[in-house]
Structure formats: C-alpha cells, structure tokens
Amino acid sequence: MLPLNFAGDGLIPVIVQDVTTREVLMMAYANEEAVHLTQSTGYAHYYSRSRKKLWKKGEESGHFQNVKQVLVDCDEDCLIYEVEQTGAACHTGYRTCFYRTLEGETIGKKIFDPEKVYGKTGH
Amino acid sequence: MLPLNFAGDGLIPVIVQDVTTREVLMMAYANEEAVHLTQSTGYAHYYSRSRKKLWKKGEESGHFQNVKQVLVDCDEDCLIYEVEQTGAACHTGYRTCFYRTLEGETIGKKIFDPEKVYGKTGH
C-alpha cells in the first residue's frame, strides 16, 4: 500500500466518483482510520470535520457507497474513491453535490426528498 | 454568480475533470482571484500553497486547461473545473495525477518526459 500524506490535521481530501457514469459525486475528508475501514469493509468511510467523528456514508440515509477502487495522486495527498452509489450522494436529494454551475443554474437531478430521508432537521 | 465559501486560508479546493473523457485529472486550490481569472480568461488558474502565489496551469509546460464549465457543490466550498486538457495534467508526465491505485499499481498512461518539459529540476 502506498504511504499517504495526511495533512497537519490528519486528514486527506477524497474525491468520490461514480465508477460507471464517471460523474463526480462529492468531496469529503478521511483520516487514516477511515481509509483503513474503507479498504477492509468495501464501503466508503470519512471523517466529518464539523461533527469531529468518523462516519460511514449512508449510515443514516441508507445511501451507501460500495468502493470498487481507490486511486492516489502523484503527491499522495489526495484520493479518489470509485464507487457504486446507492440512491444519491448529496444530502439535498440530488444525485451529486455538484448540481449547480458557478452562475447558479441547476443542472443536476433530484433523486429523493431530504425531509423524508433525514427528517425535518436536515442532515 | 453563487457565493463561495473560501476556508480560513482563503482557498477553495478544485477538482479538475476532463470534460470529454470524464477522467479526474488533478486536485488543486484556488483563491478568489484565481476563480475570477479562470472565469474571465477561460483558462484554469490556481493558488499554489507551497509557492504562495497564483499560477496559471500550463504557464511553464504549455499544458493549459481550457475551462468549459465550473460547477459548485451544495455547501459552496468545493468546485469542479470541467476542462479540455492540452497534453497532460500531471507534472510527472502522466495524463492524470491519479495514475496509481492505493495498492501501488500504476494504471495511468505516461504522455511526456518531465525532464524535457520542465528541465532536470522538476516542477
């Protein structure tokens, strides 16, 4: 396994890409434990900077990410998780978090109603 | 234009994706000026954290990125530049910076010899 450069905060950015459509679904951060759990379980794990805890994608929503391959960049300080996405990646209900252009036009597709999945409090 | 959340250091992570092949080419950071220059010129600009300066991709190598569209994520704290890549994105000579699996297998394609493009000192 390649050595990874976790930044000063112990985290590495992770780009999440749909292995079939090649769509970029989201960006998140992982610590060493999250990378290890992703490898050993085959399901995407991250570290939440706001909640300060490890999380498994889909643990609340059921929208798990089955990780088919992990890629590493030249500087070993960024990863790609190539995944099969159940449902949608974004807590807003869109398939990808990147559903808008910089000009503010919505180009993504809404897959679910977040109130029904997460309750009225959002994620 | 959507408001963007630049982090405490004034930077926003940018995922760079080939608009045709959908390949993820690299990850870099931009400050407000870099995003503005990318929009106004149509060429990818970033902010180098190590060199502490704005840079235009390709200024040394000639491997410019023509930006066709910029996407914003749900939290407005991450961007995608969808680009037409001249040559290769990675300074190592590979088309994408993500040319290896976490296990260390090389799966990417080498496009150029970095010594010929950047000289013996690397980038």
Average of per-residue pLDDT values of chain A = 94
Residue share in helices of chain A? 10-25%
CATH class category of chain A: Alpha Beta
> Would you identify the regions of chain A where 5 or more consecutive residues have pLDDT less than 50?
none
Biggest sheet layout of chain A: 4 strands, mixed
Rg of chain A, Cα atoms, Å: 14 Å
* Quaternary structure classification: homodimer
Helix vs. strand class of chain A: mainly beta
Overall number of structural domains of chain A: 1
Order of helices and strands of chain A: EEHEEEEEH
Envelope shape of chain A:
globular
* Main sheet: strand order of chain A: 2-1-6-5
Walk me through this protein's architecture.
2 copies of one chain form a homodimer. By secondary structure, the first copy, chain A, is mostly beta strands. Chain A has a single domain (12-116), classed as Roll (Ubiquitin-like (UB roll)). The first copy, chain A, is 12% helix and 32% strand. The first copy, chain A, is built from 2 helices and 7 strands. Chain A has helices at 32-41, 114-118; strands at 12-18, 24-30, 45-48, 53-56, 65-72, 79-85, 100-101. Chain A has a 4-stranded mixed beta sheet with strand order 2-1-6-5, with helices on one face. In chain A, a hairpin with a 6-residue loop joins strand 5 and strand 6. The longest helix of chain A has 10 residues, at 32-41. Strand 5 of chain A pairs antiparallel with strand 7 (100-101) of chain B, so a sheet runs across the interface.
